Amino acid sequence: MESRPHDPRPPSADQPAKVIVRPGDRIFSGLAKSAGILIVVMIAAIGVFLLAQAVPSLIANKANFLFSREWVAGDPTNLSFGVLDLLLVTVFSSIFALIIAMPISLGIALFLTQYAPRRLARPFAYVIDLLAAVPSIIYGLWGAVVLAPTLEPVTGWLNSVFGWLFLFETGNVDRSIGQTIFTAGIVLAVMLLPIITAISREVFERTPTMQIEGALALGATRWEVVRTTVLPFGKAGYISASMLGLGRALGETIAVMIILATTSRTFGWSLFDGGDTIASKIARAAAEFNDPRSAGAYIAAGLVLFLLTFVVNAIARSFIVGKKEYE
Amino acid sequence: MTTTDLQRPATAPAFQHISSGRRAKNMTATVLVSAAFVIAVAPLVWLLWTVLEKGFTHVLTADWWQKSLAGLTGRQEGGGAYHAIYGTLVQGLICAVIAVPIAIMVAIYLVEYGRDSKLAKWITFTVDILSGVPSIVAALFIYALWVTTLGLPRSAFAVSLSLVLLMIPVVVRTTEELLKIVPDELREASYALGIPKWKTIVKIVVPTALSGIITGIMLAVARVMGETAPVLILVGYTQFINYDPFGGNMASLPLFMNSERLTTNEIGEARVWGAAVTLILIITVINLLATVISRLTAVKTK
């Protein structure tokens, strides 16, 4: 190392050193700041454009947008569309998927953090993450081509034994082909597993060791350790993860579009119904977006979906905001 | 000789056997929790097996990688998915080229400059919104902007733009988390040597986090490549190869699958599953590359 010329004068504390802002600093922080401003402005602008396009169609709409069940948007001079049926199918199928996925993901997250041998926990977690890497169109194909026929005996049994319950009534599409909300919900549930598991796992891993060791010292079995320390600590994170999963399920497009059979009959709260979710309806009509008025109808539906996912995600976040122990 | 009272312990021993009820509960929990894992693995194995079984033979032919479906009808065998593979890769690449610099700069602003400022809160809020936006809504966003407002035709570039919306939040989040864990001592040491802040960020902070950032980017690219909703709305399908992302229809693997799905014969079916295998292969390769690159760029700790 080359020694620098020594300056004998010590730096004086009295004179405040002049702060030098270098041009490089100014440019770089300016760039960073403008990137940030860019995305905020971009999202705001896009929101405005969307509204601007939805409003004329909503004004021209002859049906009640929120409470009508019919959807006629092909003819721009005669628009008559309502989002109710689409909204109900969207929420119904997503909640069905969530009900299946929640307990299983809880089990997986506990298995990976508390039960699996240390050495295997990582590769096992990797396997679960692989589920998230599969594109949704492949899930859709698998669901429609392979899973749906396999489920036929199960749905037949449910239909004949529990047919008195509205959930298992004979639906508005042919159950034997399996293009029903039941199949779609199961496929959605599989797609939710890695999402809910990944977040829950992270939270469960942060359970304070002191609490776990304390419970062990009191003679708790492994399950009692989980019940008394891991679950109370991770509950908020688990619920938040599930809500995020719900948000994902609400917006899932192509898998649902491939699996569900369209029908002109209205939705009747049966798992063996067909129909369309908001997302799948938009995707199905994508090729016909030729007139701005017709497209506006779908954009209005898209806005409803956007609001729905926004609210669900906000609720999800509210569970973990301000929780110091999760940070 | 009989045992006397003196030899009997005055109190019960501290360590009692676990009662059978508790043991049964513990057992049940263990079984259920392990079963949950098996239940999750079953569809993964089943799905991958289906895809490979139905599509793998198709991918092995050289034509699959070198030819498009130009001039072939749904009843004619042959042809390949070259046009779709090209589309998928190009759309993913354009998306990454646009999204990555913006996302990294945003993350740098959030961590290095804007901490707790009002703008930073707004940005975090926007990124939160974006991360929850369904892909179909992101596609509608760009449709409203690109096609109806600006009057431009549908194109592969519009698809890339909507993928940018999906990719930015993922990369911002990862980069932000990684920049946060870069130790402050490194920054301080750099400042103490009189190095300007921007150079500290470019030469010290980002390289320290680089391996993780690259992994994050690669995973995000792999994810957006499988998105189907944006391609459905923002670009038309074609059987021919189209190199121009700014004009004309362009195929991509998800779009290829979605249109061949409607050819209801064995040939169309085989093409769909072939494309599924190809898509999974591409995603796997990108994931593996991510692992390798992150190993290579990792900061040497010794």
From TrEMBL, chain A:
The keyword Thylakoid does not apply. It comes from the Bacteria. Gene3D superfamilies: MetI-like. The chain crosses the membrane at residues 35-59, 79-112, 124-148, 180-200, 295-316. Keywords: Cell membrane, Membrane, Phosphate transport, Transmembrane, Transmembrane helix, Transport. InterPro entries: MetI-like, MetI-like_sf, Phosphate_PstC, Phosphate_Transport_Permease. It is found in: Cell membrane. SUPFAM superfamilies: MetI-like (SSF161098). Residues 87-316 form the ABC transmembrane type-1 domain. It is a multi-pass membrane protein. Pfam families: BPD_transp_1. PANTHER family: PHOSPHATE TRANSPORT SYSTEM PERMEASE PROTEIN PST, PHOSPHATE TRANSPORT SYSTEM PERMEASE PROTEIN PSTC. Belongs to the binding-protein-dependent transport system permease family. CysTW subfamily. NCBIfam families: phosphate_pstC (TIGR02138). Part of the binding-protein-dependent transport system for phosphate; probably responsible for the translocation of the substrate across the membrane. This is Phosphate transport system permease protein.
Automatic annotation (TrEMBL), chain B:
Pfam families: BPD_transp_1 (PF00528). It comes from the Bacteria. The chain crosses the membrane at residues 29-49, 84-110, 122-146, 152-172, 204-225, 272-293. Residues 85-294 form the ABC transmembrane type-1 domain. Keywords: Cell membrane, Membrane, Phosphate transport, Transmembrane, Transmembrane helix, Transport. The keyword Ribosomal protein does not apply. InterPro entries: MetI-like (IPR000515), MetI-like_sf (IPR035906), Phosphate_PstA (IPR005672), Phosphate_transprt_permease (IPR051408). PROSITE patterns: ABC_TM1. It is a multi-pass membrane protein. It is found in: Cell membrane. Part of the binding-protein-dependent transport system for phosphate; probably responsible for the translocation of the substrate across the membrane. Belongs to the binding-protein-dependent transport system permease family. CysTW subfamily. This is Phosphate transport system permease protein PstA. It comes from Kibdelosporangium persicum.
